[in-house]
UniProtKB/TrEMBL annotation:
GO terms for molecular function: dioxygenase activity. This is Glyoxalase/bleomycin resistance/dioxygenase family protein. It comes from Cryobacterium arcticum. InterPro entries: Glyas_Bleomycin-R_OHBP_Dase, Glyoxalase_6, VOC_core. SUPFAM superfamilies: Glyoxalase/Bleomycin resistance protein/Dihydroxybiphenyl dioxygenase. PROSITE patterns: VOC. It comes from the Bacteria.
């Protein structure tokens, strides 16, 4: 049997201003930007983290965003993380808090309008009521 070990190398984003957008995400994740030419690489901030790569826009941003990041935080810390990210420049979009017993999340947009979610999963005992 073949075992596959696929991991996320980096989440790539085109940006109007790659350096400014990388600075937001660096503050959000705790990573240190590594600029190179017009692009910026943001390595994982910790083991098991994810990298990001910001490059200049090559075309206008589509009206509909077909993918986004789902970030997970420990149970009970979602609201404080949302508040921190908004203070860094994110924009609040909406909450999904009561629809699913296994997760609740807040959807935000980064300074260039890219959507992302901050989710928390309750302990199993709370999920089973």
């Amino acid at each position: 049997m073949t075992t596959h070990q696929i991991t996320l190398g980096a989440f790539n984003l085109e940006a109007r201003n790659p350096a400014e957008l990388a600075a937001f995400w660096a503050a959000a994740t705790g990573a240190t930007p590594s600029p190179g030419g017009e692009s910026v690489y943001l390595p994982p901030a910790a083991p098991g983290g994810f990298a990001m790569f910001f490059q200049p826009e090559t075309a206008p941003r589509p009206e509909h965003q077909s993918s986004h990041l789902d970030l997970t935080v420990p149970w009970g810390s979602r609201q404080s993380e949302v508040d921190r990210l908004i203070a860094l420049g994110a924009t609040y979009k909406w909450d999904v808090l009561d629809e699913y017993p296994h997760v609740q999340w807040t959807t935000l947009a980064d300074p260039e309008g890219n959507l992302f979610c901050v989710a928390e999963h309750p302990p199993v005992a709370l999920q089973n009521g």
